[in-house]
Amino acid sequence: MVRQKVTGARSLYMRGYLLTVCLSVWMDSAHGIGVQLIPQYPVVNQSVTLSVTGVTGTIRQFAWYKGSSVDTNNQIFNVIPSLNSVTHGRQYFSRASQFPNGSLQISGLVPTDQGSYTVIIQTAETSARHTVLLPVYEPVTSSVISTNNKEPQENGKVTLTCSTNNAEKILWSKNGVSLPPRLILSADNKTLTFSSVSRSDTGQYRCEASNAVSKTISDPYTLTVNYGPESLSITGRLQVTSGSTISLECSADSVPAPTYQWKLNWTVLEFQNSKLNIQQATSENAGNYTCIVTNSVTKISPETSVYVTVNDNDSAGFTAAIICGSILGTVFIICITGLLYKKYVLSQKGQSGDIGEDPSRVYENIPNTAKAHPAKEEGPYMGLQYPSQDTYSELKK
Ligand SMILES: *[C@@H]1O[C@H](CO)[C@@H](O)[C@H](O)[C@H]1NC(C)=O
Ligand SMILES: *[C@@H]1O[C@H](CO)[C@@H](O)[C@H](O)[C@H]1NC(C)=O
Ligand SMILES: *[C@@H]1O[C@H](CO)[C@@H](O)[C@H](O)[C@H]1NC(C)=O
Ligand SMILES: *[C@@H]1O[C@H](CO)[C@@H](O)[C@H](O)[C@H]1NC(C)=O
Ligand SMILES: *[C@@H]1O[C@H](CO)[C@@H](O)[C@H](O)[C@H]1NC(C)=O
């Protein structure tokens, strides 16, 4: 009893096994065939083998068709391996050849070879059919970046275009790393748009175009965003002493580097760079120095000014000395003039008075010579007093 049971179980198991084997054989021959592309990514001008896989048993006959429908009009060839017989169909082309294992080889691929191919394999047991899609890849052409705006200014719109063919994927990089996220790429990634470009977008851009069979990387494109001049300043000493050097430097933030021009008051100076040097400065060089900074791309030309004073050697002390000196000088001249006036003008008056008066006095005062004598002695003294006042008033005038 026990043994029978065991036998029964075994026979059931055996039947199941046989069924599985039969099924798998049937599936392999009927529905289990496939086509493998060798190489996986066929390239134009090269060859490809559409290799039939999963065939069990001897192939009695096989046929290849262009397209997915099995139609005599689409037939490339029909082959009976055992007879070495190949019948060309309407779609036959000389670059197509067959192998006894059912495979189709196409050499010298052209882009129009791309498409569906269908094979029918007949073995002793059954026939099976499979359709495969053949892609034909072309290598990507070298990628080149071009722009719509060769001299972009800040906040302007800039597009960079990656020109390439046959690419399936395009990736951009900036300074060797992937792009910052705010930038806009077209659906195919060919165009990179900066709707409002900023100075921080300045950098080296590359595009990498690739497909399954090749990859090219463009030369770097240097995007330079122009701006400024801004943040102008003039540095240098604003108070210099006579005989020393006036040395000013003008600076500004600007791309491209700006040109510089200097003015003193309203006069344009010959200096054309950021540094200005005037040696042996005199008071003539004092004034309002203006630096005009021009950006040739943005056409912006701001200016800034400083006032430079040139002091005489000892500055304040010397000035004070000059003022004092001139006051003293004036006083001195007054004194000298007074003395000279007294000496010449009055002494002449005094002499003539003596000559004119003396006789009358002498004659009138002859009777009292004693009285006249003191008067005569006072005469010169009085004479000195009067002219002195005259001199003063004359100087006042
Ligand atoms: C394929 O061959 C043709 C003709 O020889 C040639 O002009 C073409 O450049 C080749 N293409 C590739 C991708 O090699
Ligand atoms: C069929 O034959 C070709 C040519 O010998 C070979 O490249 C291919 O791998 C074969 N296919 C199979 C499935 O063996
Ligand atoms: C476009 O670029 C992004 C990254 O910036 C990448 O993830 C995506 O695969 C690219 N698409 C194509 C079609 O190249
Ligand atoms: C510039 O102007 C200032 C007064 O505004 C004047 O003192 C100075 O002498 C002037 N400098 C020149 C070189 O004209
Ligand atoms: C210098 O001149 C500019 C005009 O050229 C004027 O705007 C500025 O006020 C002047 N600066 C001084 C310190 O005189």
From TrEMBL:
Any idea what this protein is called?
Carcinoembryonic antigen-related cell adhesion molecule 1-like
Q: Where is the composition biased (Polar residues)?
A: 386-397
Pfam families per UniProt: Ig_3 (PF13927)
Cited PANTHER family: CARCINOEMBRYONIC ANTIGEN-RELATED CELL ADHESION MOLECULE 16 ISOFORM X1, CARCINOEMBRYONIC ANTIGEN-RELATED CELL ADHESION MOLECULE 19
The signal peptide stretch is 1-32
Q: Keywords of this protein's UniProt record, alphabetized?
A: Glycoprotein, Membrane, Signal, Transmembrane, Transmembrane helix
Span-the-membrane segments of this chain are 318-341
Q: Which organism is it from?
A: Xenopus laevis (African clawed frog)
Organism placement in taxonomy: Eukaryota, Metazoa, Chordata, Craniata, Vertebrata
